[in-house]
Write a structure and sequence with these properties.
Layout (H helix, E strand, L loop, with lengths): L4 H12 L17 H16 L3 E4 L5 E5 L6 E7 L12 H16 L8 E6 L10 H6 L5 H6 L8 H7 L17 E9 L4 H4 L4 E7 L1 E10 L3 E2 L11 H19 L5 E10 L5 E2 L2 E10 L2 H21 L3 E10 L2 E2 L2 H14 L3 E6 L5 H4 L5 E6 L15 H17 L7
Parallel strand pairs: 3-4, 3-5, 5-15, 6-14
Antiparallel strand pairs: 1-2, 2-4, 6-13, 6-15, 7-11, 7-12, 8-10, 9-11
Helix pairs in contact: 1-3, 3-12, 8-9, 10-12
Family: Belongs to the peptidase M20 family.
Protein name: Allantoate amidohydrolase
Organism: Pseudidiomarina atlantica
């Protein structure tokens, strides 16, 4: 049994048109933006046209499939929101592959009493911190966080959802009970160079890196760029620049070869060419496979920023918008996926994921497995993100047979 790659390709290309920017050729579907919600409505129409039931829960997660959800279900999926100037495969591959698996099962008249559903989770990319849709499904939200969460531009989650006709507090009712799920499967691009450089077809993921995200403020004094002497300035940008140079040292002293620290978004105020920056606002995202290491790295970042602030006569403040601990995938399900890959004759690597995925939250309530395909040159979160169609086909076929192996008719 094989998936229909042309059908999967057509759906991925059609979805990529939503939020597409002709200027930089990137995809813009931030969580709970107009484009994001347009994509969710499009997905529901596609699923309905294929004959599937569909619904959106209070967190904005879109579900599609067949079978009453009154017995343990097999759930497949990922997300369809994107980072600014993202690519066409990140997240979307897993959602469209889930739809393709359902259609392939129908093409081959696979009848099962087990509910088989797909999901497009909401706000996975962390615009508001965390992985909102998957956290809602896993019952990991609380009212205080839901009402206080905001993005780096100060937009509150509750307001962004209200603008789309959603009540953020309804997300608290979106939790699934463990007995409702048999397993969760996610297909994703690697978003790194390992599989591509080693010419391997499949990554069998056995664990997911933890992630913390900070929003940092360094506050100094805006001043005239021509009249303020260099040794009398409280230049917030110089504080940011000094921290950037300290990242390699922090990792060498406190991290591991799996540690990542990234300054991803920067805003300087007042932001005028002839004015010394009085404030630097930026994000820090740290990752590691060991939560104790994550804590060491976070502490080192805090101490370093405090010292830099004193050096440049700045005030240092930060807000931790999310802390996601590392999560192992289900060993039993990972072993089963590995056996399927071997049986199908694909070259593969059993590997960790340096990027966060919905799987890490779904793993708290069910058996959860994650499958990777290569990213060309390791590129992701960028317009030139690409995976070859033969790799897309391979990954979708692994997803198909991993789901089939979970059906009771096949002895599971």
């Amino acid at each position: 049994m094989q998936i229909n790659c042309e059908r999967l390709k057509a759906n991925l290309i059609e979805l990529s048109k939503i939020g597409y920017n002709e200027h930089d050729r990137g995809i813009y579907r931030p969580g709970f933006s107009d484009a994001d919600m347009q994509a969710r409505r499009w997905l529901q129409r596609q699923a309905q046209a294929a004959g599937y039931d569909t619904f959106m829960d209070g967190a904005g997660n879109v579900f599609f499939g067949r079978g009453e959800l009154n017995k343990p279900a097999i759930l497949m999926g990922s997300h369809i929101d994107s980072v600014p100037a993202g690519g066409i495969f990140d997240g979307s591959l897993g959602v469209m592959a889930a739809l393709e698996v359902l259609q392939t099962m129908d093409d081959h008249n696979v009848n099962t009493d087990t509910p088989v559903w797909g999901v497009a989770t909401a706000e996975e990319e962390g615009r508001f911190g965390g992985m909102f849709g998957a956290q809602a499904m896993a019952g990991k939200l609380n009212p205080d966080w839901v009402l206080s969460a905001h993005d780096a531009d100060g937009v509150y989650l509750k307001d962004a959802m209200a603008a789309q006709g959603l009540n953020a507090m309804d997300a608290l009712d979106a939790a699934w009970r463990p007995e409702q799920l048999k397993a969760y499967l996610e297909l994703h691009i690697e978003q790194g160079p390992v599989l591509f450089q080693e010419n391997l077809q499949i990554g069998v993921v056995d664990g997911i890196s933890g992630v913390f995200k900070w929003i940092v403020h360094l506050k100094g004094k805006a001043d005239h760029a021509g009249t303020a002497p260099m040794d009398m300035r409280s230049d917030a940008f110089m504080g940011l620049a000094d921290f950037a140079h300290e990242i390699e040292r922090i990792i060498a002293e406190n991290g591991t070869d799996k540690t990542r620290i990234t300054v991803g978004k920067v805003e300087l105020k007042p932001g005028y060419p002839h004015t010394v920056p009085g404030e630097a606002i930026f994000t820090i995202v740290g990752r590691d496979m060991d939560e104790a290491v994550m804590q060491e790295v976070a502490n080192a970042c805090r101490k370093t920023l405090s010292a830099i602030a004193r050096k440049h006569r700045l005030m240092f403040e930060y807000e931790q918008s999310s802390w996601l601990p590392p999560k192992p995938c289900s060993k039993a399900l990972t072993d089963q996926i590995e056996a399927q890959v071997k049986q199908m004759g694909y070259s593969y690597l059993r590997m960790p994921s340096g990027a966060g995925h919905d799987t890490q939250f779904l793993s708290e309530i069910t058996e959860a497995g994650l499958i990777f395909i290569p990213s060309v040159n390791g590129v992701s979160h960028a317009p030139d993100e690409w995976s070859h169609w033969h790799d897309v086909e391979n990954g979708a076929n692994v997803l198909l047979h991993a789901a089939m192996a979970l059906l009771p008719e096949n002895g599971k």
